[in-house]
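Sample A.
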Amino acid sequence: MLIAGDQPLALSRNGGAIRDPFWNGLKNIDSENDPGGLLNGLTRAGKTIRTPTVTLSSGQVHYLIKGKATVYAAVSQNLFAGPLHGSLTRKVEAKGDAPQWIGHNLKRYAGQRVHFEFSPVGNEPFELLRVIDGGTPQHKPGERKALLRKELHQALDDLADGKLEARHVPHVVWLIEHGKVKLPDELSKTWKTALEEPRKEARWDSQLAVSWWGGSGVDEHVLDRGSPQSPGERVGRNLPELLAMAPLPNRSPGRLELARQLTAKGHPLTSRVMVNRIWHQLFGRGIVPTPDNFGWLGQRPSHPDLLDYLAVEFTETHAYSIKSLIERIVLTRTFGMSNTAADPVYADQDPDNQWLHRMPVRRLEAEAIRDSALAISGRLDRTIGGKSVLVHLTEFVVGRGSPTKSGPLDGAGRRSIYTALRRNFIPTFMLTFDFPAPFSTVGKRDVTNVAGQSLTLMNDRFLYGQSSVWASRLMKEQTSAPERIQRMYAEAFARPPSDVELAACLEALTAFIGLYGGDPNGHEAWRDLCHSFYSMTDFIYLK
């Protein structure tokens, strides 16, 4: 069975789907050399080639390739043994200039659907000519020469007619460079004009981004009790009707159409879900308290009319601008309320603060706690963009596949968003404060209050180091102890200390000074006082 070679392959740049115009006409190519550069259209460096989805018959697969790549067989079911033990992934390399057949044993997956993804190694060119399933690769003598001859003649005919296709440009180049033809002056002008068109269309400088492509699309069977060994009737592809989705047009794969319908202006759910998540981030609780579930198993909205109003404003007034909607909400009286109830009656009637009679007390997220520690000490690097910073490895951050290098303890002062995360190697400090495991999206994080958090604030080496940085900065200012403490409250909590708090800090400072030799300007004493600020409730809670 021919999997790829007689039909267009879908090529992608880091997952973004494009169609290769050079594939058309490259049928039944054998492993002879390519003197005319006919296969240059299939040369790919730094991209991914994806085949259509097919059903494996024998599972004995062969690839006809030139160059070096990593191939992954994306089988639809029973994946547990494959990726873990490497049977679905293998390195393929054809040495020399001639294409070579490379075998791949996938017999254990016979009868299952699969597509193949070829990723070139490094920046070297890679060419995929054929993928077959079953049988022994056969070479057909003379077939390639006949095909090349036909394509070269077609290129010259198109050039004479002034309709040269982009896929024939390499053919004409080869004919001229090897002295096979000498173009008349008039035809040479036509050739130069035809060459300008592809140059205008080419994007010489482009940015690549990770994206998804819908693939060739397949209809799935209903699985009896969820077992892949008991397939039932095959059901046609479609979009969920319960999400107000229209049927798929022309039996398309569906992924792109799903995105288009979800982001359509008239879709009833998208804008409501988005404004509810924005509200949740600003107030600690969404209008719908279950931001990941707007269905019957989720909770009902506390203010349904407000949800509808914000959804309309988000689409019509703010043109889907998240920043604009945030500005609208934070300038309201509701957002500016105190966290103390204005009247005790309100607290009795609304103990859960469902109606927002006061601003709820909220704990900072793990990233905000870490970034706040850096900002207070003065170590925070506010540079936008740049490379990610490796996670600092401790004796608790261990496991299979551990990074070979450890990052700095303070993450080079960068914000937490620039920390390189691996699922098994998450910074322990942020894990303590309910940093979600990066396995899937989390609309609403867990917020716990456990003893380990207080112990971390008192003993973590990161905070201990930031306390020292903060103290060093304070010591450079020639001010009195009360003035320094007032400065510390302003920087850490954005408010002045009360008389009781100021007296308590001075008493603690006196004790620290006595502990470290009696120097009122000793670094150790001020370091410990700074450290105590990180352990205060005001540091991790918004009040």
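Sample B, a different protein:
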Amino acid sequence: MKLKYILLLIFIFIFCFMPTAKTADRREGIENFPQSYQPYLQELKKRYPNWKFTALYTNLNWKNVIDNENEFGKNLVPKSYSTAWKNTKTGEYNIEVDAGWVDCSRKAIEYTIDPRNFLNEVRIFQFEGLSHDSNTMNQTAIEKILYGTEFYHRTVQYVNSSGRTITMTKKYSDLILTAGKTANVSSYHLASRIKQEVGPFLSHSSISGTVKGYEGLYNFYNIGATSSSEPMGAIKNGLQYAKDGKGATQATKTKYFIPWNTKEKAITGGAIFIGSSYISVGQDTIYLQKFHVSSQSNSTLFWHQYMTNVLAPYSESRSIYQGYSNSGILTGTMSFVIPVYNNMPKTPVQNPNILESSFNVDNTKVYANVSGGLNIRTGPSTSYEILTTVKAKEEMTRIAKGKQTGELWDRVRLSNGIIGYAYQGYLKQSAVQEEIKVEFDTSLTVKNNQVSGLNVNQLTVMQVKSKIKTNGTIKIYNFSGIELTNTQNVGTGSIIRIVDKNDVIKKEYKIIIYGDVNGDGKINSTDLLVLQRHILQIETLKGAFYTAGNVQKNGKNPSSLDSLFIQRHILGLQLIGQS
């Protein structure tokens, strides 16, 4: 009895104090991200107020992640890429792991794994949540995603193992929509992935049904198409999976509809594979399928990776974005799950194409010397995506001055923390002068460069200016950018600018009047109409107007309950609080 008691104590001690696997933690809301993420997400939220962002705290150390991904053959780039992208170790440099593909550099891994590099409206889609949503997904949108390919509005035909051509009554979009519903995988993701994996042509070897030895077999997602130095090795490996699951059990083959000897079985069975093998176990974004840094089962990480191309999430995100943009669904609800690591670099890791030798370290205040707006991009050329657009005379800090051959581009940090690149010819150095300071009355709330808390009966420019102390000059504009006189009223979206003696913008804020969703400073029936159009998805509120429509101040999409609060305000039953 005593021995059993001792063993029990030992078991309890081991159970309580032994090291346990760290689990990922998901937290929705921009405020739950590290500061280095937030300005990029806030910029996206301004343009797309219905987008939702969830921080995935992996609880993994940055260096440990890179070390585990930086194993020979795990991440590849095309052999044609520059040396900066490739592993240059002796005996490993330019060795083809797959035909035309070589091991990538550590810098390339750091760049592609750092989520902060891809928080723009194009590349963000590598973080899109990939479960099916029957309320928003439809065949018309799938067709728009397929536009420009031979799948577009095409009736399905395939060759069986006997060489006979079979013509179905269904289109590819039918099969993709049904596959998404069956597998609980985003049908839009499936359409985009097919475009990514097999390209725009039905003649691709993975889906032609004519590869010798694999006649009548199809693999739309290149599942099991592992790297091989043999000619067409990866494709044959994928078709072998389509044939017999590469030794899978009968239960597994039944689950995935293997053999994939019809296009319908290949599209649906492959979708079930993606759903059950990745999405349902926590790898529910393209990024997480490429970089195995999260698992719901606490299993060993870094091995269950869908593809070897280190830039696959980067490439697929553009394809998805273009498909969504063409289909007109970008303004709808989109959900993104974005990883966060411990001890990340202070600033985003640079693209290997961007050489530090092309810049001189700088710390100069400059401003946009343009008449309109100046685009801030993710890299030093117009081929890179736009992060944001700054206004004429808006000030920023040049942190690296370009000395490239040809066009000169500078690396800049905006006042909100965004780091990007601007054409040097459009930047002008600010005059040296005292620091501009701004202090708002304690009755006001200032958050993320938005000002609320104004008394709706005291909205003249003069009254607003009286609540601001600064050694600069205050200028106030309406939401259209027209400067207001001291006797005119401000409204939602009105802009407060603090400028220096050279008229360079030092600080900028937007005014929020809760309930005023049309920007005239009043809360009346017009606002009810505008809000109703938003609720019915006829015309979406954005930016400051979206915030003003959320009268409940709970951070949610403005709804009929907010409309009710506006009605009660108009009737004098309950005034809307502004603080």
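Observation for Sample B: The longest helix spans residues 2-17.
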